[in-house]
Amino acid sequence: MRRPLVAGNWKMNGNSESIRVLLAGLENTLAEICQSVDVAVCPPHVYLDQVGRSLQDSEMILGAQDVSRHVEDGAYTGECSANMLKDIGCSMVIVGHSERRHGLGETNDWVAEKVVAARKAGLTPILCVGELLEERETGRMQSVIEGQLQAVIDLGMENFEGTVIAYEPVWAIGTGKTASPEQAQEVHAMIRAYLAGFSQGIAQDIRILYGGSVKPDNAGTLFAMQDIDGGLIGGASLSADDFTAICQAACQDG
Ligand code: PEP
Questions:
Q1: Nearest to 168 by CA among 42, 9, 13
Q2: For a Cys-Cys bond, which of 72, 75, 115, 141 suits 131, CB 3.0-4.6 Å?
Q3: Which pLDDT tens digit goes with each residue over 106-140?
Q4: Total domain count, the chain
Q5: pTM for the complete prediction?
Q6: How many Å lie between the centroid of ligand 1 and the Cα of residue 82?
Q7: Cβ(214) to ligand 1 under 6 A?
Q8: 108, 147 in Cβ contact below 8 A?
Q9: Residues 110, 164: Cα–Cα separation, whole Å
Q10: Bridge partners (DSSP) listed for residue 165
Q11: Could you list the residue range(s) of the whole structural domain that residue 33 is in?
C-alpha cells in the first residue's frame, strides 16, 4: 500500500506576508488530512526558513524546488547544496522540473546527479519526468521518459529507493490542459513497468505523482487511478482552499 503524497510547488511566487496568510489557511484545514496523506509544500529557497519555522508543530513536510548537483561546499555561486537544505529543515526536494530542463537547459545527467546528491544528504527527491507535446505527437514519449529514468538508473538503481517520481506532461503544466485520467494512468503504468525491469520491489513501492493543471475538480478522478499515488501541484497550491480540496481528494482515494 503506497501512502498518497500531495506536494505544492509554489514556484517563484509570493512574499513573506502572502506566505504567512497561505500557511495560516493550510494549517487550519490540513491537520486531519495529514493523518492519511503526506502533504508537502515547496516554497522558493529564500522563504524555506520562514515556512520551516511556521510548520514546526505541523505534520506538513518542507520541500525545496531545486538543489545543486554538487555535494561538497565550494565555488558555485547561486547554488544551494542538499546538505544546506537538510540543515534548514527540508525533507524533500523537487529535481528536474520541466521549467528547469527546458527553460534552463538541465540535462538528464545533471538531474540524475541531483537525485544522488539529495539522497546522500537524506532528502527525498521528487524526480520530475515528462514529454513535450511534440514528443508525444511524434511517438517519442516513451523513449523520452525512459531516457530520463535511465540516467538515474545508470548511477545505481538504489537511487530510486524512497525516491518519488512525478509524471508531468510538459504540455499540461500551467496550461489548464490536463492529461485525462486514462492518459496519465497509461504513462504511470509504463514508468512502473520500466522500473520493474530493474527491480520489482522498487517498482511496486515507488510513489508516482501526476502533475499538470491538477485542480479540485479533476484531482479525484486522477488520484483514483491505480498507479497514481498523488499529485505535484503548481498553480492550485497557491490557494489554501484549492490545495486543501486536492489533498482531501487524495485522502478519499486512500
Ligand atoms: C508544476 O509546476 O509542477 C505544475 C504541475 O504546475 P500546474 O499545476 O500549475 O500545472
A1: 9
A2: 141
A3: 999 999 999 999 999 999 999 999 999 999 999 99
A4: 1
A5: 0.97
A6: 23
A7: yes
A8: yes
A9: 17
A10: 127, 208
A11: 5-253
